[in-house]
Amino acid sequence: MAAALAVGRHWAFDSWLGVSAVALAPWSVLPAGVAVLGLLALSGWRAAVPATVLVALASWPLIVTAVPGSQSASAPIVTVMTANTEHGQADPNALVATVTTRGVDVLALQELTAGSIDALSSAGLDRVLPYRSIAVQPGGTDVGLWSRYPLTDTHMPTGFTVNPVQARITVGGHQVSVIAFHSQAPVSERTTQAWQSDLRRLADIMRTAGASTIVAGDFNATRDHLQFRDLLAAGYTDSGSDAGAGLLRTYPTDRFWGPLVGIDHVLVGADLVGVAVGTVAQPGSDHRAVVAAVAPRDAAAAMLGSGGRPSG
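== Endonuclease/exonuclease/phosphatase ==
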């Protein structure tokens, strides 16, 4: 099974069952490992070798995510946080406290409602991050972008199930484009088609957005999905992979077993790199937030050459 799911990573499934199975691919390694140990105990190492090779191949994507990129060391210029608020149910005071304690400069929020936006303002979010732009959607599941720095060239690209917010900030002498994004969730055949369309449309925008671009949001996709890796092929990396953060599980948090999959991400263009990335609990929401410290890639290379290492 683990080998089959590993092969599935290289197939763009059109069915929601296939998409869901690929999302759970990393967990197939656990029972497969137990089976290999059982085979070793019962039949000896000769019989277990082929199965061990298959499990190792299936595990390789997990190992890669835990190894820092060759340039993942520098002082960050901007800290980005993305959080799905589960239809505005995330505790506004807890969210603002996280923004404050983590020194967040740019915040991308998904599944906002008019009431939750007001609650966040009352909790002090607009005082900490005074610049904002919100893409109001029919049905009230809005996407919002908050920033410590002025937002310029702000617009809402169309052609998505939920239109994102795109803007530009200037920080540390660098101009950075930021996109707050939320894809359709692939929970049926119809919504899976919409999910694929959202990711393809986003890839088109990312290709022309420039190398100093950050895309933060709920992609409803893991690193195991080919459709997600197609986004990276546009010249981006997952900040968590840059930082060697391992498997960042963000969803669902409202089950007793805890989050199983990492569908929330901060992606960075070729001129940027993630240097310290982790997840944070969000009371009231079924997602953990992702917080990523981002640095210029050329500065990261210089820091690496002098022996510097990231903190956190």
